[in-house]
Amino acid sequence: xxxxFAFIYRFRAFLVFVLLEVLCVYLIVRxxxxxxxxxxxxxNKYVGQVLEFQSGVTDYFRLASINSTxxxxxxxLREEVLQYKAMAQLDSTRQLDTTYYAPSDTAQVLPYIxxxxxxxxNSVRRTNNYLTLSIGTADxxxxxxxxxxxxxxxxxxxxxxxxxxxxxSLLHSQMLLSAKIKRDNTFGTxxxxxxxxxxxxLEYIPLHVNPVKGDTIVTSGFNTVFPEGVMxxxxxxxxxxxxxxxxxxxxxxxxxxxxxSYVYVVENxxxxxxxxxxxxxxxxxxxx
Amino acid sequence: MNSKFxxxxxxxxxxxxxxxxxxxxxxxxFGVGFCFIYVGFLLFLPIxxxxxxxLFLGFAVGFAVxxxxxxxxxxxxxxxxxxxxxxxxxxxxxPRDGYDTGDSVNIHVMGVRWFxxxxxLLLLVHHxxxxxxxxxxxxxxxxxLLKVLVSTLFTGVVMVILQxxxxxxxxxxxx
Lengths: 288, 175
What we know:
- The complex is a heterodimer.
- Chain A is α+β, with helices and mostly antiparallel strands.
- Chain A has two domains: about 1-30; about 40-288, no CATH class.
- Chain A contains six helices and twelve strands.
- Chain A has helices spanning about 1-10, 10-35, 45-60, 65-90, 105-110, 270-280; strands spanning about 115-120, 130-135, 145-150, 150-160, 165-170, 175-180, 185-190, 200-205, 215-220, 230-240, 250-255, 260-265.
- In chain A, a hairpin with a 4-residue loop joins strand 4 and strand 5.
- The longest helix of chain A has 28 residues, at about 65-90.
- By secondary structure, chain B is an all-alpha fold.
- Chain B has one domain (about 5-165): Arp2/3 complex 21 kDa subunit ARPC3, CATH 1.10.1760.
- In chain B, helix 3 (about 50-70) packs antiparallel against helix 4.
- Classes of the chains: A alpha+beta, B mainly alpha.
- At the A-B interface, helix 2, helix 3 and strand 2 of A face helix 3, helix 4 and helix 6 of B.
């Protein structure tokens, strides 16, 4: 017994080293798979305060560009409001008499809810990039919700605290996004291969369709995270490789991730109902 | 005299981590050159420090950076590895007549060649660990290796600059 203790004492440095490394590997594995209540991340209250202070300083140097982004977005929204007004005047099916009542798509009645949030921490140059937003559960944000900017898809909420949220950016090696080519509705998967933060890849587009350079890529709306038709980017190059049964397509992302200042967290009021239905039907086998 | 862990080291810890999070996070060369300046905290610790204590310090500094980088465990793992290898490297590089009690990791005291060998060896190990843990696979090993080399060079140069600027040259050079 004494020998055992003597042995442990002699190799204490190595044993502590092994223990700490095992702890680190456990942390890495757990943080990558476990989406729920990870405590030590940038959604943590104190960490969030430091990051908010930092962006409070750096934001002053970007005020001009932030203002112009907001102004541009206001313009787009105004335009859209006008369009809806015009449409409402044209669309009078709901006011028809009971004989010819045409019930419209329920998705129109309850639209997606947007929560605006400021980006207080952002990265674009790592292999796995994350953002931190200064909104949290107090503002209605929940893990798993989609995040979009005024000009396209940004990512998905990973963890939330009361006033902050961590978002897995589209620029993450394990982030997959269901998307389609707007022109002919062919759907595929957007994946970021690393490297340049302006381009991603569109995968699983079969060889019988004809994607061309400049085609617009939008979200498919097949999962419950993003609404259908949110801009992702435009095709910048299409390659047909002889040993593959899919095209190799590079997509220029519409969002400039290095310039993000304000984003919107998308809440889908129908999400629970739809997921439950699809799970009962056996379509959704596991949580994505 | 210099072999104690004191208030100055705690101050260094805070400064290095703050520099890493607030400044170096935004400073990336060509998308491949990263600067992990916080490693300097571990490198510049007193030479005759308890090995077990050093391991815990490595974990602490790595963990602090991890929390802000959202890379749970990666920097901690690499820093603990560095803290484990530091005494071995110091042994390997022992000067002909051994370390004096007053010796510290200081480019003026220990000489440029000793400092370069010590710094770049440990940085190489640390950066290799960080970038390969980040990608997990060896799929893009070429790109990762490039990142490791450029980042090691970058961080190493920053370490030398830090030494020349902030570490006093009280004693005459040794080599």
